[in-house]
Amino acid sequence: MLEVNQLLSAPGDTAVALGCFDGLHRGHAAVIGRAVEDKRRGLIPAVFTFTANPQQELSGSGAPRLMETADKSHILKEMGVEALYQIPFSMVMDLSPEDFVKQVLGAVLRAKRVYCGFNYHFGKGGRADHRDLRKICKTYGIEAFTLDPVMDDGSPISSTRIRNMVEAGDIESANRMLGRPLFYTLEVVKGRKLGRLLGTPTLNQLFPAGFILPRFGVYASLVRFGSTTTYGVTNIGVKPTVGSDAPLSETWMPDYNGEELYGEQVTIQLLRFLRPEKKFGDLEQLRRAIVADGETAKGIAEKNATD
Q: Tell me, what's the pLDDT at 291?
């Protein structure tokens, strides 16, 4: 997949999916899928998005991310996207709606077809919507299509809804709207090795700034690295029994007896919220709770594999 972070001319005519695409949920997949389908028309399936949420770039604060850039690129490639334009919002933020279509979609992307969601806005100040996009694109010989929202439980799927679910610990609803488990791929760092003393050695991973923090507590999870996939028990929070300096992800893999993974990039997929964080009276109570969580997580992972 061609990955571009500047406004460089596309290598051929394209079908372009437009959007921020944080999380790449089922609604996003519907928009992107239409561009991918146009490969049969001889067009290059492309995505035009931003390196960061526009609000984050404008004000330095914004909604927490559901996905890191490298993970987004990987999934888009798997979806069939062949050209990913992921640029700083500042490069286009001052363009009028017509200039965006003429200069970016027409001249740079060589778009013949473009797709967006029902709530898409563009142009300086975000003043133009999907109706304006169709009108302006027609002037420049570009076909523009707006997709209806993908619904879940009677409401449109959105990144905002998913964030709310993740922060509330309703990870199963979030995963249903995403179309896959919420996941993060982070480096394994050294901890206090308390888990090893308890017989439950863990992977410690620090969340990057701006990434969403799921509700603090214990989750059933899947762990992936290299060719290995195994189930896990993931605690997210500040470890109230022993204390920690910052929120982190700490995962025990009951069936793993391999090498230590310090410095490795490991993917954690959250499957189900098991219980809130709890301060135990002593380390033995904590150990028994972790072991019990492991049994629960194993059953959830096995069920997830067969669904």
A: 83
CA distance 77 to 91: 24
- C-alpha 90/C-alpha 19 separation (Å) is 15
Cα distance between residue 219 and residue 235, in whole Å: 6
Task: Name the pTM for this structure.
Answer: 0.90
The residues of the chain scoring below 70 in pLDDT are 59-60, 192-200, 239-245, 280-283, 305-307
Predicted local confidence at residue 100, as pLDDT: 97
Could you tell me if 79 and 46 are in contact, meaning their C-beta atoms sit under 8 angstroms apart? Answer: no
Quote the CA–CA distance of 208 and 278 in Å, as a whole number.
24
Nearest to 273 by CA among 164, 172, 178, 163: 172
The C-alpha angle 80, 82, 86, rounded to 5 degrees, equals 110
